[in-house]
Amino acid sequence: MRQSITQGAALAVVLLAAFACLPLTAATSARTSSTGYADESSESYRADRSLKERFGWGSPQVQMELRPSVPVDSAEAAAAGRRLTDQVAHSPGVVGAVSWWTVKDETLRSRDDHAVLLLARLTGDNAQMEATAARLADRFGGRRSPLDITVTGRAPVNRDLAERSRQELLHAEQISVPLVALVLLLAFRTLVAAVVPLAVGVACIAGAQIVLYGLTKVMEVSVFAPNLAVALALGLSVDYSMMLVSRFREERAAGLGVRPSVRATMRTAGRTVLCSAAVVSLSLSVLLLFPIPFLRSLGAATVSVAVLAAVTALVLVPLMLTAVGEHLERGPVPRLKRRTGRESTQRALPWAEFTQWVPRHPAVALTVATGVLVLLALPFARAEWGFIDERWLPSGSPQRVAAERVRAEFPVAAGVMPLVLLDQAPAGSATAAHFATALSQDPRVVSVSGPTGVFTNGRRLSGTAPGSSGTQAPKKASQPVGTWFQVTTRLADPASGQAKDLIRDLRNRQVPGGAVVAGETALLVDTEHLLGKVTFRAAATIAAVTGLMLFVYLRSVFIPAKALATNLLSMTAGFGAMVFLFQEGHLAQWLGGTATAFTDPLLPPLMFCIVFGLSMDYEVFMVARMREEYLRTGDNHTAVTTGLHRTGRLITASCLALIAAIAPLAVSALAVMQLVGTVLIVSVIVDATIVRCLLVPAAMTLAGRWNWWSPLDRDGSPTASRQASPNLQD
To answer: Model pTM?
Structure first.
């Protein structure tokens, strides 16, 4: 009695301390970053940094649409426009600003001659540029007679994305926690049993805030990390807790007391939770292999949350079960008939009769399931790669409307404008002039501008480049003296194949010291190249590490190989949905957005690692129970069918709980969060139905007793492991 009181008091202290950490949400969110989408060792990143540091030049991060109430070529409009351009150029954090009134570049004048575009180039890192953009918008945005000023551009759009993500984080728990509570009530059908996993989930959310706050102290953490971490913290901790509570109820139904049931639960389901969390964590840790801060920060956050979810469940659930185990079946949900024991086992799945059909026709089930998954994956072959822009904001949002209007009125704002750096060709040299002259003759190029002038159609125009002073920043003696050029092209889409071909052609041009290229398209080319190299290594690492862990835990060669194959198939539907629902826009209108027209190349590796880990979570839980039945009976058919029935209802409930935890992502106002949430939900549903109810039992039925063969067996036969290990706990 005294021990129970002590445990209850300790539990209360732990939960109160965890709940006290929930206010950290706002503080953590404020410290996150909306930057880190580039490989800092890539050519485009290095070129962009060099252009800023050495020449005070670079891609414009702020665009201002200036719409005067008088004709744009009037003296009044010209005076106001020059004055505004000078004020922007001399604002803190701005290295240069140009407009049509200062350089007479016709690309900076709208097609209808009613508006002018002002381009501002900012200094500092991305976070500093976003802060500068916000100050410019506050100071200059709105009406400044005779100009009506709208501020947009890459920096304001990124800031809007970040702010919306932070705001949604504060409301995510208000949506997910009640939904998860409803799922738990329907799954366990008693109030006390439902409260145990829910309390663990809320405690894990609070713990995740502490972990994320700590991560922001030592690394750059993506603004999207808290939203994803909260969803996984709640989903995984509830998932693990449901496994433990369900097994505890089975042990109690078998006649064991509270404490023996807790010990038996931890020896069986507890080991499964530990193995599952290890596999999930290892899968997510592969994100750390990518040299891109965005992916690394999400990898660090999700791995930490997966470990925290397992620790929280393995520590708090036994304490809670010991304290309330005698009362776990109290508080039945009204109007729901409770089923326990044999009846619950016999009716474990809504489609229990159908699952009996699979072992009798395994080849047909395997073929049908594989065919369906391949068909669901086909849209992914149509993927087009491009970075997140204003099209990922909600329809009608002010920043999106402004950016779209600027793109429509000023083709230069949406077009392909690479920046070329020649390290060993000084400004005004014959080499630099020859390079610019030859490049301006390319049919894809409108003009090539630099510190010494503008080149078009193979000839140099008088004057200097727009916004250039004609001089260059001083160099250190150890640095080669070079120059730069801005290339204005006829290409309208920075993510198009033609734009990427142009970048490759620029880099392959013969010039002393070579030409390095910066700009959005160059960064996209470098990112695709990097991901192409690293993704294979990351996938091989996941396969090797998780396969080895499953081999050690399950003492089987076939099951790890089968798990890798089925998990790869299980994520095909999610990848197809990524393109079909968002890039092509078949779901966008229902979620308040539009087709994104392309898929960000950083999202597939992120989704691969998360979906693979979640799929392995269900795999470990189901197959571990099948192995337990095989060790008990020695019959593969019985092991497969009984294991499926005993885990089916729980996997269904766990799937619904995870969907409830992810729901705030899927209904987000941001397309990027909608994509992550929807792909996770689709993948979880497909995995819990087609994969677990068709693929896995069909494959294990066909393999028969060879499911359990291991070279570690003493006589090399499939039955040796059963003889060597009479029960799973040994």
So the answer is: 0.84
